[in-house]
């Protein structure tokens, strides 16, 4: 593959390294100096390194390390198109796409989604040496970032520093499987629609489908002009998204989207295809709705509509609440729903309600950002049955319970 882009316009973006194990990043071409306030802004108060001192070196697990990439060579250009499939894209299909007139360079990645605190994030498992050229110049040339990804850590979009539930040790849990706890090595700009990047070994540990997506740079060719030729090649094996449109409008109005969750929730969600329909709402594939969404009677709340995988645990939790004499602590008239296919308000990020895996209780007295009035005995029962509670989050949402672990009632 080759680059033919004559030049690339790159916006200045925040880059912040969160480890001090490698010393060669400061010498990387284009890497921001640690003392340059325009190049790196302080992390939030609860993030590693908030006191201005570099965090202690992290002991890495060799099981998730790959060979470190060398210095970057070649041009840097943005990812203009994302092709995302349900299964591994065949080498033949990838070769046909790369041979298409207007495709300048492409790289395969593994792409999946992880729900964290009612937001669904896009996780990519990549070859750090190939993927880096689809970011910005500063991010691509930040050598330590890619060394840390190769070593088993994660690089996260710098726009998410206020959003993710990062632990005091700088780690982030992406599920329950071994290898799901990953240390964040850098906050830096990523390719459009990519929130978090890990290496391929870490992706395997997370249960991600290998090489089910392709990032494409089109150089001087308008990405929109390649939509139909690409759609003809991939057929129903993948979706084609114009990332330039996503960057400008927050979504690609000419395409439907897809989500594939990692870990325990892969079965509960499967492949979630949907179409944006305006007003922050989405229309899931009717076939997905038929196989995943059910309407059933549950204790206390009556008849509700949720994901069928959630129902057994929800019924068990509510049944225990009744047996403990706490039923009056849940107010059926203040229940605000479970299955509600939509984006998070004001964003193009999916809500966990879109999959029917979350529910909101006692809404009036449990608004976001407050301690709320939710009975702690009720909270404890939900937690025992595999639900996370929004009252524990940094920005609280005490009305909200979401499935965090699949459990089979005895």
Quick overview:
The chain is built from eleven helices and 18 strands. The chain is an alpha+beta fold and 410 residues long.
List the helices and strands and how they pair.
Elements: E1 16-17, E2 81-85, H1 91-98, E3 105-116, E4 119-126, H2 128-131, H3 137-140, H4 143-150, E5 154-156, E6 171-173, E7 181-187, E8 196-199, H5 200-205, E9 213-217, H6 227-234, E10 238-242, H7 243-249, E11 257-260, H8 265-269, E12 271-278, E13 281-284, H9 286-292, E14 293-298, E15 302-307, H10 311-323, E16 358-360, H11 376-384, E17 387-389, E18 400-403
Parallel strand pairs: 4-8, 5-7
Antiparallel strand pairs: 1-7, 2-9, 2-10, 3-4, 3-9, 5-8, 6-7, 11-12, 12-13, 14-15, 16-18, 17-18
Helix pairs in contact: 10-11
Q: Can you characterise this structure?
A:
The protein has 11 helices and 18 strands. With 410 residues, the chain is an alpha+beta fold. The chain folds into 2 domains: 16-263, no CATH class; 292-403, Muramoyl-pentapeptide Carboxypeptidase, domain 2 (2-Layer Sandwich), CATH 3.30.1380.10. The strands form 4 sheets. Strands 1, 2, 3, 4, 5, 6, 7, 8, 9 and 10 form a 10-stranded mixed sheet that branches. Strands 11-12-13 form a 3-stranded antiparallel sheet. It has a 3-stranded antiparallel sheet with strand order 16-18-17. A hairpin with a 7-residue loop joins strand 6 (171-173) and strand 7 (181-187). The chain is globular, with a radius of gyration of 22 Å.
């Amino acid at each position: 593959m080759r680059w033919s882009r004559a030049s690339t316009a790159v916006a200045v973006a925040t880059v912040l390294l969160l480890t001090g194990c490698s010393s060669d990043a400061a010498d990387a071409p284009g890497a921001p100096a640690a003392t340059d306030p325009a190049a790196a802004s302080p992390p939030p108060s609860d993030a590693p390194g908030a006191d201005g001192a570099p965090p202690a070196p992290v002991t890495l697990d060799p099981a998730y390390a790959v060979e470190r990439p060398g210095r970057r060579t070649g041009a840097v250009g943005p990812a203009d198109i994302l092709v995302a499939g349900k299964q591994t894209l065949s080498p033949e299909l990838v070769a046909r796409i790369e041979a298409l007139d207007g495709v300048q360079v492409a790289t395969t990645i593994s792409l999946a989604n992880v729900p964290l605190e009612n937001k669904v994030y896009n996780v990519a498992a990549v070859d750090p040496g190939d993927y880096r050229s689809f970011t910005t110049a500063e991010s691509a040339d930040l050598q330590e970032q890619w060394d840390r990804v190769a070593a088993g850590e994660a690089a996260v979009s710098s726009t998410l520093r206020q959003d993710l539930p990062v632990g005091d040790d700088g780690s982030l849990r992406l599920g329950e499987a071994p290898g799901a706890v990953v240390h964040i090595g850098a906050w830096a700009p990523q390719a459009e629609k990519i929130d978090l990047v890990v290496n391929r070994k870490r992706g395997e540990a997370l249960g991600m489908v290998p090489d089910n997506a392709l990032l494409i740079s089109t150089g001087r060719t308008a990405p929109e002009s390649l939509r139909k030729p690409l759609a003809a090649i991939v057929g129903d094996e993948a979706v084609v998204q114009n990332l330039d449109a996503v960057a400008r409008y927050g979504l690609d109005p000419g395409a439907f989207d897809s989500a594939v969750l990692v870990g325990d929730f892969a079965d509960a969600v499967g492949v979630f295809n949907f179409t944006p329909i305006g007003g922050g709402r989405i229309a899931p594939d009717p076939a997905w709705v038929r196989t995943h969404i059910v309407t059933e009677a549950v204790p206390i709340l009556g008849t509700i509509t949720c994901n069928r995988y959630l129902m057994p645990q929800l019924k068990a939790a509510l049944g225990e609440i009744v047996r403990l004499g706490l039923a009056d602590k849940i107010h059926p008239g203040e229940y605000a729903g479970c299955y509600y296919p939509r984006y998070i308000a004001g964003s193009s990020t999916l809500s966990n309600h879109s999959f029917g895996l979350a529910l909101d209780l006692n809404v009036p007295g449990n608004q976001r950002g407050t301690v709320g009035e939710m009975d702690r005995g009720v909270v404890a029962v939900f937690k025992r049955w595999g639900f996370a509670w929004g009252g524990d989050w940094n920005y609280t949402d005490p009305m909200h319970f979401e499935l965090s672990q699949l459990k089979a009632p005895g």
